[in-house]
Amino acid sequence: MHRMSVLACLVCLAFQFSCTTAPKTEEKKDALAMNVEKTLADMKTDDPSFGDFLDKTYGYVIFPTVGKGGFGVGASYGKGEVYEQAKMIGYADITQVTVGLQAGGQAFGEVICFQDKAALDRFVNNKYELAAQASAVALKSGAAANAKYADGVAIFTYVKGGLMAEASLGGQRFNFTPVR
User: Chain-centre distance of CA 128, in angstroms?
Assistant: First the structure.
């Protein structure tokens, strides 16, 4: 097995076994909820049409901060909250391992909008993963007004900081845990 493939597998396994989807303490749940609210407010301020788009979705998941870094092999991880018809129904995490030309680090928010119950159900039943070729709309003023669903899903990203140059391949994986 190629050395970078081994490293990518190890990073992926470390993410899956060392991170749990739901925050473990009330303080961490509260901190995540506040981060979700702030990120949504910032996104709606930068693009007022995003709020309108979000209001028309059946459900969505927001990862307020996804950390991404890489040098040859890259990885990203973040936690978020899942909403169905504006009600929080659970927690999710996002992991990604990429291989290719890349260097740097970046933090971004990601919102995945579900057009209907069937699309949300695929996500909450852990039968959803984004392929490397999936496209996301980089949020800026007016971007959400022209966004379209693909297979019942629309994806928005919101860069928070950092710099990352990349030409890499890798898909995103998600895990969902319902609110207890």
Answer: 12
Describe the crossing of helices 26-46 and 48-55 by its angle, rounded to 10 degrees: 120
Q: Where are the beta strands (DSSP E) in 40-171?
A: 59-84, 87-114, 129-130, 137-138, 153-169
Phi first, then psi: give them for residue 16, nearest 5 degrees. Answer: -70, -35
In the chain, where the domains are located: 3-178
pLDDT tens digits, the chain, 180 residues: what are they? Answer: 344 443 444 444 444 444 556 778 889 889 999 999 999 998 888 888 888 889 999 999 998 987 766 666 666 778 999 999 999 999 998 877 665 555 566 677 888 899 999 999 988 887 666 544 444 545 555 556 567 788 888 888 777 654 444 444 456 778 888 887
